[in-house]
Amino acid sequence: MQSQEFRLFTPGPLNTSAQVRQAAGRDLGSRSPVAIHLSARLREDIVDIAGCDASWSAVPLSGSGTFAVEAMLCSLPAADDHLLIIENGVYSARMVDICRIHAIPHSVLTLPPHQGFDLAQVELALKQTPLITHIAAVHFETALGVINDIDGLTQLANRYGCQLLIDAISTFGVLPLDYSAPSLSAVALSANKCLHGLPGIAFVLVRKAVLATHVAPRTLSLDLRAQANALDSDGQWRFTPPLQIMLALKQAIDEYRQQGGRRARHRAYSQRMAHLLGGMARLGFTPIIQPQFCAPLIVTLAPNPGIQCEIDKLNDFLFQRGLVIYPTKHWAVNSFRIGVMGELDIQDIDDLLTAFAEFTAQAAPGTLQPNPLSLRPAL
Length: 379
Known about the structure:
Strand content: 15-25%
Shape: globular
Distance between the termini: 22 Å
Helix content: 25-40%
Radius of gyration: 21 Å
């Protein structure tokens, strides 16, 4: 089968620039001075992009963003600490799974997944469970495209003396966090979201004072303190670093800065999202999440009554044209997600809208048949 270039309107991995992909095509010895400098440079870059001060440390790890989240949850709370997980989506539910597997003491506050969490309910949970020392939450749940009020949660944690552990996988580099807040202790992030790098490297930003405390390790390869100590002592990773992915991330960060950094990227995403929503509205598709809980990253849409749109057929139709979206099933709604992150532009959005228009024009029942031999994107 002939190879095909795809445009990825997904939560990630995302489309990357040719220069980023090219940067990964170089071999490098992991113990060479160049590799040591690369690790140090990337750690400094992540701290700089976050906008935090020298009291923070960026600890890199091989793997996806979930590796960083697991490392954060396993490494930072002590055996006698108690974690409150605010679960309002797939990725906060994954935090619950991590804590169960590692027997980390925790409570779960389950809230509706179609809206940002209610701080009043969080405060009630804190009052009812005074032994809580840490709170874990997701900044932006990409399963439906829901933003959570981390600034409000930070203020609440400040009042109750809790430490915050935040999954900012899909927001780092575009949506800011207040790193000066005393309660914010750690933030997990990934290279292959808003930074437009390749998948395979993640980071946890941690306060150095937190890293300096002793906690018995629950894991070998995901031990943040051991990794930070190794890098701080001789610049070496404890285990083989993903060097080609690191070279690609260096290039991606250079491009991020050349393009204007966080504000410029946020502006570009916002323009794409506005253009997408306007076009989809004209075609008869409406977001299922209320605007106050949305961010210009991912949107979940559903067809208006009378619009013929079977998601499986739509998925195949777009995929055959090199356009990739992610279906999502929620409340039995025939819905799907479209992302505007990555190396996309307005013309790409227009091409997607044109394909949607063609599909809806043809999509009378029984008209379209999916190609059983076509490749299908992973859900």
